[in-house]
Amino acid sequence: MTPIQIIGHAGCGKTTLIVDLVKELTKRQISVGTLKHSAHAHELDKPGKDSYRHRKAGACPAAMMTEEMAAVYLPRNHTNTPDQLIKTYFKQTDIILIEGWISGPYDKIELWREVVKRMPLFPDLKRVKALVTDDALPSRVVQDAGSNEIDCLKRSDVEGLADFVMGLTNG
């Protein structure tokens, strides 16, 4: 299993890119898992529902199962980290696409859009392997990417992006 982080500023299209990559990679018979990391504290369960009430009463873990899905709710603590979730639940996947977790330790692909009106994140981060956009990059950004050995890739070329992701799994 190879975790790859998809990073970028809010509103740049990370979720849409991940959906497109999952579709393309699974079409190639690659098993893909995803992990959405949020830096904000918010409730994942539905307040008032049975699973929520079980958890609030002290059940740990609290799980829910339907005919089509299963969910396990765990409290976040020092032993329950993104890395631990990956080791526990993603053993059977070839690739794990992680949305966010900017401080994470894995190779990163940054998505950038001019409309967000913020400079790319890569100059301040480690392990960024590609900058993805269909927008015209400022020449300084292209120079910085080149000097940091970061590939500049087209967002509209999903097949090419999937090829790049596959290359990261073999490297």
Automatic annotation (TrEMBL):
Signal peptide range in chain numbering: none
Pfam families, per the entry: MobB
Annotated Molybdopterin-guanine dinucleotide biosynthesis protein B (MobB) domain residues: 4-134
CDD domains documented for this protein: MobB
GO biological process: Mo-molybdopterin cofactor biosynthetic process
GO molecular function, one term: GTP binding
Alphabetized PANTHER family for the sequence: MOLYBDOPTERIN-GUANINE DINUCLEOTIDE BIOSYNTHESIS ADAPTER PROTEIN, MOLYBDOPTERIN-GUANINE DINUCLEOTIDE BIOSYNTHESIS ADAPTER PROTEIN-RELATED
Protein name, as recorded: MobB: molybdopterin-guanine dinucleotide biosynthesis protein B
